Amino acid sequence: MSAIRLLVLGAVRQHGRAHGYQVRNDLEYWGAHEWSNAKPGSIYHALKQMAKQGLLRAHEVAPSTVGGPPRTEYELTDQGQEEYLALVRASLTSYDQRPDILTAALGCMVDLPREEVVGLLKERVRHMEEWRRSVTEYYTPEEGPEQLGHIGEIMNHWVFSADTGAQWTKGLIARIEGGSYTFAGEGEPFVGVLAEGQENPFAAGERPGERGR
Known about the structure:
This protein is mainly alpha-helical. The protein has helices at 3-15, 20-29, 32-35, 40-52, 78-93, 99-108, 114-135, 152-177; strands spanning 18-19, 56-61, 71-76.
């Protein structure tokens, strides 16, 4: 699973229709260039590839009055909407994803109903607990990693990761069940993208020469 795919679909979806620089700007605003592979080249590549795959619909629009080449704006197709929600669900549920996958899913979770997100996160906890049990069939945490030499530190890290991951997830579940955040169908959502022309305080670099990409 690719974090960039989920992030790009999520950013386009929040705008309704967005061009490449808007998507890049949003992902830098979220800090995604620091914790994922959401770099400028991969963002523009993902937009073009997903348009070819039928997940995004591309619209050629006229250049701005200040000049520059025509740019392409994208919006989700019905297939793209289905793919996006499927990626959010899978990323919230799976316990063994890379950190960037889970982080991307957390930024998109409010696009699902509250009860569904709670159910997905509880499933994630169950998977983590099952995984921990599979590790402790061969490793006894109470006896410490030394029992297996320095290789024991690998299993010790796995157990620690499972314990802390489950604890954090349970805390998130409690906050969501307690009413935190606005989920799908509950009213006006939190606006997590920049408005057209709004300055991005976390921009990673200069605006690319091809503004229309």
